[in-house]
Amino acid sequence: MSAAKATSGNLFANDPAFEVTAQTVSVLPPLPLAGPYDYLVPEGLSVQPGDFVEIPLGRQTQRGVVWGDAKGDVDPAKLREIYGVLPTAPMADVTRKFIDWVSAYTMARQGAVLRMAMSVPDALDAPKPIFRFTLNPEFDADGASLRMTPPRKRVLAFLADHPPMEQGDILRETGAGASVIKGLVEAGAVQRLMVTPPSPFELPDLDIPRPDLSDEQVAAADALCAQQEKGGFSCTLLDGVTGSGKTEVYFEPVRAALAQGKQVVVLLPEIALSAQWLQRFRDRFGVTPALWHSEVGQARRRDTWRAVADGSARLVVGARSALFLPYHDLALIVVDEEHEHAFKQEDGVMYHARDMAVTRAHLGNIPVVLASATPSLETLANVEAGRYQRVALGSRHGAAVLPSVEIIDIRKDKPERNRWITPTLKKRLLETFASGEQAMLFLNRRGYAPLTLCRACGHRFQCPNCTAWLVEHRAWGKLQCHHCGYQAKAPDACPSCGAEGKLAPCGPGVERLYEEAVETFPDIRVEVATSDNIMGPKAAAELIKRVHNHEVDLLIGTQILAKGYHFPMLTLVGVVDADLGLAGGDLRAAERSYQLLTQVAGRAGRGDRPGTVLLQTADPANRVIKAIAAGDRDAFNEVELSQRMTHGMPPHGRLAALIISGKKEKEVDEAAWRIGRAAPRGDGLMVLGPAPAPLSLLRGRYRRRFMIRADKGIKMQALIHDWLSKVKTPGSVRVQVDIDPYSFM
Ligand code: ADP
Ligand code: ZN
To answer: If you average pLDDT over every residue of the chain, what do you get?
Structure first.
């Protein structure tokens, strides 16, 4: 038997239930099952922890990862044998530890987490080999009786002058047919070589000089590079105002890690819109990095997964899921825009990629850099506590200065009826266009109007599957639910009272604002940018080009325009409804609104010309509005933190949510009631609920919520685990645990 027996036989501690003689291991399949299962290792096969293997599971053949020693909880006589080991580099120890850790933290099944790391099943197969042809050096052309034909001569002459070539290239260059090559191979004159396909990713060029960094940027870059060279775990907040050159600065430790011959991952929130970022990366490192996000095609995903696993993809840029790739030798993680809520995955395994990135760095004993102009309160609290370090960039790069912010009180400075641009904003827009500059109007609402109402009977159009109004999209002639995607044709008559021509849009969306802008400024070129029309990196790149070429004077958009973009001629930003994000009042409403408005404001005046931001509000005394106008982030954060402290909310205390959902309302209520009766009690602990979720109906499922608040020392996961294990709920009711919730819907 193989040598592996001695190292990974069943030596499970604490007296396993069964005595085992054959070698057994546990294997985790990428499925939301109970955990790893024990398997027998057939005679002659050697397996190590981390190996990708094929196993029988039920009536199917599954692929999984050898997780470790057998658990010894099943009679070995009943165990099934592993079919074989797949030709893939084994999963690194650190990746398996990470999966276990994420599973324990988020309370998602290990297999569900593993599935994120095995999202491209066919990447586990051996890559298709390619064949190349070359002259056989041992072939004696004179001695052998090789019948020479003109095509054969051409092929031999061609191969004599070239490195091994693929058949297609040879045929194209010589005009010979495939049978000619075949004949030469059979005669022994030409050799067929099997080669592994080269990695699709080029090595970065580390000799391109960096741009001239300012003193402040040099200091920040040096601090980050020092961490990188020292090695080991560290978490550093790169805290720099918008336009301060954070990207240029974190490229320096990226370079240092690449120079160590290792891998780097950069997580970006809106990967689809990172065309400008990619260009800057290309300028700095001469190559395109490996991309990892939902729009990457299947074949490319497979090649990328393999190249990450074998280490030939040195730099990966991706959305949150890039964190779960099976890195060969990861040496640095960068989380750009670390405050972004898009890093929280809200379905399946509910995890926050920024927090998990810190964990991944810790387990891998490597540095992580968190970059933001508006860091999250969680991160600031960690800096305060000395757990994270902080490197600051206080000023914009070059001649650019931060924009000035002015408040427009829409109660005094009123727009006309069913209009949203105030006279002051209109005047300033006109001035901007007159001086040949560009402007942006920000309104975080897709579609034409957020609500449609019948003026005859008061009927409101609601989604049949969700607790939500239908949003009119006039461009498509449709009403749409923004939660489940339900669509209906916009009717002419009210479905409730039958009145015709009485349906009225209420409130503005970007489409309606566009209509107003075109009517108000007939001579200027207006363009709308939302996730409805800017789908994918290509459309985003084209938009960026049009703005850069000044084919657009006024850009109207939602939050997709808030981040990252750098348009030097954009000098005026109008926030049409600065109060929008403040309504609803969830835990982070003020913080999120502050961050979003700061980011939007940060688009103005990034070039030589100074920028202005106008905030339209009905609540100028609101502390978020005031803090933005004053540019006083510290004051805002201080008030926000002290309020959270008073209520024991994050980052001072911990939160978790339970979401109970199902198709039958009665069953959901009953399950929620039973879970409520078993709720834990104790000091430093508060359980609220069950309460109907604000979205009490979502995609046809009824939803009830619990909110658990606990002091920092309390082991939240253990508490919830105990709690839920006491209650039986029917299979038709789903109980989701959301640790550190960001959505309260
Ligand atoms: P942030 O991410 O902090 O908002 P960016 O990294 O986007 O800032 O930088 C803003 C702009 O200034 C970009 O166009 C960037 O290329 C440019 N920039 C920053 N630092 C430098 C530098 N040292 N030399 C040249 N250009 C720079
Ligand atoms: Zn819906």
So the answer is: 90
